[in-house]
Design a protein that fits this description.
The structure is a homodimer of 228-residue chains. Chain A has helices at residues 11-23, 34-43, 60-68, 84-92, 105-119, 153-164, 172-180, 188-202; strands spanning 3-7, 27-31, 48-52, 75-79, 97-100, 127-129, 133-136, 141-144, 147-149, 169-171, 212-215, 219-222. Chain A is an alpha/beta fold. Chain A starts with a strand and ends in a 6-residue tail after the last strand. The first copy, chain A, binds a DNA duplex (30 and 30 nucleotides) through helix 6 and helix 8.
Amino acid sequence: MTRILVVDDEVPFLRALGVSLRARGYAVELAKDGPSALNLAARGHLDVVVLDLGLPGMDGTDVLRGLRAWTSVPVIVLSARHNEQAKVDALDAGADDYVTKPFGMNELLARVRAALRRAGPAVEQPVVTTGHLTIDLASKRVLADGRTVHLTPTEWHIVDLLVRHQGKLVSQAQLLREVRGPAFERETDYLRVFMAQIRRKLEPDPPRPRYFVTEPGMGYRFQAGDQE
Amino acid sequence: MTRILVVDDEVPFLRALGVSLRARGYAVELAKDGPSALNLAARGHLDVVVLDLGLPGMDGTDVLRGLRAWTSVPVIVLSARHNEQAKVDALDAGADDYVTKPFGMNELLARVRAALRRAGPAVEQPVVTTGHLTIDLASKRVLADGRTVHLTPTEWHIVDLLVRHQGKLVSQAQLLREVRGPAFERETDYLRVFMAQIRRKLEPDPPRPRYFVTEPGMGYRFQAGDQE
DNA sequence: GCGGTCCTTACGGGCCCCGAACGGCCAGGA
DNA sequence: TCCTGGCCGTTCGGGGCCCGTAAGGACCGC
């Protein structure tokens, strides 16, 4: 499910956006100030953020910077200011798009679709197969020795990340950041439990992992090839 | 060099854009109709396309579709039409951004920067190969004589540093500072142990190092291939 | 209230870091 | 020639960190 975070201090407007987006089948989180927006973002994976710049208290650009410190999630900035310099500042601070109020709901939805489209097929490698495993990233299905295996959302999230970076080493910090949020980078206990669970489900010989290997002190790696 | 294609039928406007972009250090191609735009795009790699929708003859959205048939290069659409449906159509046809005329040059430049930033900074050469060694900095993986070699975090840290500065001398102080912290710059005993370990794992003839050479009293150096 | 999922905690074991000690090489001096 | 001191390479062992695993509690859906 595609998750979208909407940040705006005008509650009616916020609710209207939430309704429109949910009607399109997105999972929507709402926040009406900066700190709670960052909190929600830290809580788990997001696919798009829609961010109003005119927030009371914490400025919208500060929220943007707070996000950019650890994630590259697409951010669409909303603002009543038509001032060119404001646009330049927001875009250079890491915004992906800048829409001036008032705007049409259809335009915003189209820009959300554009942001999702860009992020999605960036790494287009829907199916990965090894001797024992078949992992279909698009349809979120995994076969081990021909039998379909059920993965919980968190397990899938980790597998997805590792498989997308196949061959490369992914640090525990990065995995934790993506799966649980930046506040949990150090909680490596958490990861070990899930890696064990994943291996129990997917590895032919869980105590001696062949595909989901760990590099002590550094991170984890998914290797598809059969090379030693 | 970053290459940008600008497509517009109003020649003065086209020239003005070209000048501004070139002044920023981009390599700019100009086209004033659809067919020549597609031709130029097919001719070689582009990093961004700036596309006016109001072209005579071939419509701008057709150019967009022509591009999207084979490339995912970022496209920023320009248009005099404020009509919302036009924006939605262009974005859904694959545009990455939609800017209505008139617009400020600085805004366009900021949107170009945003598009380039999204596409990802051109990843530099992360793989170094010599006669016996293959060192993949991105994957954190090392092959010696075709076999993958396991490096501990500290060993990898040192190898990474030396390979990134390949050919250049890296002082013991710098290595120690990076690996253990600034308080340990003098503890050269420490380094010798790790260099020995690294050579034992990676050098074809550890007592006579070929790649990880020491410069007595100064530091260490990684030299790829072509020794002597 | 029940199954599934998430998260925490505890424990045993293996490996990594790191200090220390020793030997080799070289240059300089008595 | 022998000694000495500086710098380097190598080996070894202990302490501590990191990892895998199991068990159980918390939370949320149906």
